[in-house]
């Protein structure tokens, strides 16, 4: 794989690379960051509003209101993904939609929708976590490493 990176390009390939680079649209980094910030902030504000609603109307406390608020955000994300709206929002906002938990729900739901024609077990069940599976695996591994570090630090502090 690394030998392909060091491979010399033919003159035709070099010419094509220059041609493609000249026609590639210039992206405004500041504008894209601003859009991502605004949309991510809106999603987070909706989540905060849901948490407040669960505390005010359903007698949850500040700690326990986070779980149902997150569940509602996930359900909204899956619903918007299923009707095709979330993809348009993500296309415009970029990273602003993938950072909150809604982006994770979108990856799972879109993979499930894409493979539903192959059946529920082999299509939906087998392909739903292909994209999100690495996030789950690395998240579990990271939590394990952090827990080991915490236990080690606490063990050293008790000596």
UniProtKB/TrEMBL annotation:
Q: Which InterPro entries match?
A: Spore_V_AC, SpoVA
Family annotation (Pfam families): SpoVAC_SpoVAEB
TM helices/strands, residue ranges = 29-54, 66-86, 93-113, 133-153
Name-wise, this protein is: Stage V sporulation protein AC
Q: State the UniProt keywords alphabetically.
A: Membrane, Transmembrane, Transmembrane helix
Q: Which NCBIfam families match?
A: spore_V_AC
Query: Please, which domain of life does this record's source organism belong to?
Result: Bacteria
């Amino acid at each position: 794989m690394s030998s392909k990176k060091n491979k010399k390009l033919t003159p035709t390939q070099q010419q094509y690379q220059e041609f493609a680079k000249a026609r590639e649209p210039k992206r405004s980094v500041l504008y894209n960051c601003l859009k991502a910030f605004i949309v991510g902030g809106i999603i987070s504000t909706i989540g905060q509003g849901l948490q407040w609603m669960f505390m005010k109307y359903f007698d949850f406390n500040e700690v326990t209101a986070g779980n149902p608020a997150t569940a509602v955000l996930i359900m909204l994300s899956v619903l918007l993904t299923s009707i095709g709206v979330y993809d348009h929002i993500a296309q415009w906002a970029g990273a602003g939609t993938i950072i909150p938990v809604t982006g994770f729900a979108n990856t799972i739901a879109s993979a499930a929708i894409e493979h539903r024609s192959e059946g529920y077990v082999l299509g939906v069940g087998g392909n739903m976590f292909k994209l999100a599976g690495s996030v789950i695996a690395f998240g579990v591994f990271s939590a394990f490493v952090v827990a080991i570090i915490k236990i080690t630090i606490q063990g050293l502090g008790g000596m």
